[in-house]
Amino acid sequence: MERTPALSVPHLASTSRPRKCFEEFSLRLLSGSSLLILANKQDIKGALTPEEIAKVLNLEAMDKTRHWEIVGCSAYTGDRLLEGFDWLVQDIASRIYVLD
Q1: Residue 58 annotated as binding site
Q2: Binding positions for GTP (predicted)?
Q3: Per the annotation, does 45 bind a ligand?
Q4: In a structure prediction context, what are the per-residue pLDDT tens digits for the chain, which is 100 residues long?
Q5: Which residues form the domain of 73?
Q6: Structural domain total, the chain
Q7: Which letter does DSSP use for residue 16 in this model?
Q8: Is 55 annotated as ligand-binding?
Q9: What is the pTM of this model?
Q10: Of 3, 4, 7, 46, which sees the most CB atoms within 10 A?
Q11: Is 40 annotated as a binding residue?
Q12: Do residues 93 and 61 lie in contact, with contact meaning Cβ atoms separated by under 8 Å?
């Protein structure tokens, strides 16, 4: 995964699995890569909020060279999906260097 600008994260459906899933996944996440977490199912009562997910995953403690964003969304309604992918594209674009 050398030079990988972005990676996707598996769906975090339950509160019992997210931390373990993220720890295993983040071992492969390169420093400086963009991490977009789509906090799906925000249209369903009881869904973890983006803030709760950040806390469960301990994102504040992550290496500061890793760019991350959590976007609360609903794949069912399409709400905020584009905002998430817009962030991802802009974040990657901000780190692309043009060689002379």
Answers
A1: no
A2: 40-43
A3: no
A4: 445 555 555 555 555 566 666 665 565 555 667 889 899 999 999 999 999 988 888 888 877 777 899 999 999 999 999 999 999 999 988 888 655 5
A5: 6-94
A6: 1
A7: S
A8: no
A9: 0.73
A10: 7
A11: yes
A12: no
